[in-house]
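User: For a reading group we're discussing how well predicted structures match intuition. Take Large ribosomal subunit protein uL1c. Before you show the prediction, I'll give you the sequence so everyone sees exactly what went in.
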Amino acid sequence: MSKKNISRRFKNASSLIADEEYHYQDAIALLKKTSSARFQETAEVHIVLGLDPKYADQQLRSTVILPKGTGKPVKVAVIAQGEKVTEALQAGADLVGSDEIVEQILDGNISFDKLIATPDLMPTIAKLGRVLGPKGLMPSPKAGTVTTNLATAVQEFKLGKIEYRVDRTGIVHMPFGKSNFPQEDLAANLLTIQESIERNKPSGSKGKYWQTCYICSTMGPSIAIDISSLKSSVPSLAT
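Assistant: Thanks. Here is the predicted 3D structure of Large ribosomal subunit protein uL1c, as structure tokens, for the group to look at:
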């Protein structure tokens, strides 16, 4: 598709969106309506939080399991030994091994979406930091990717567990499904994200925590959400 056609399509989609904050259900309906690329676009949420992550007590990093999944198959690799190899394979891991997996990663001969390791092998994978660190794939306890409970970890990531963190400007960027998901599935995922971010609010947060919230499809325009509509839909956050 030419840039001219992309520009025209984006302009037409943008014309459907008013300069206002929408109830999250209406915003999701608009996201689906303005998604018109020739591939299944990812539904994205971008949340500006009142955090300054240069301070340790204002950093946000956690994981959340999207109840309706991400819409993307997740390839999970596991670095383990002994009986843990069988545990990982039975749980559905795509690649399992130890030294051989490490060497394949260093050589660039292996691809995966998540890498999980047992704590005892952390010294073995330390050398992977320079390769995996910049890609956000290095196993870590905070991300739930360093664990002895491989079965649970593998199954959760396969089901739609994703990691999120606030970037240096105080924004969280997350996928919450595909544009062809039913509206109720996208809503369920979005509300789960809202609840998780609220539950993991850093102790050093000051002032207004949620600043703005926008959703969009991969190639679509941004749609502003009325944050109060999200909170009022989650009983534990409505008060």
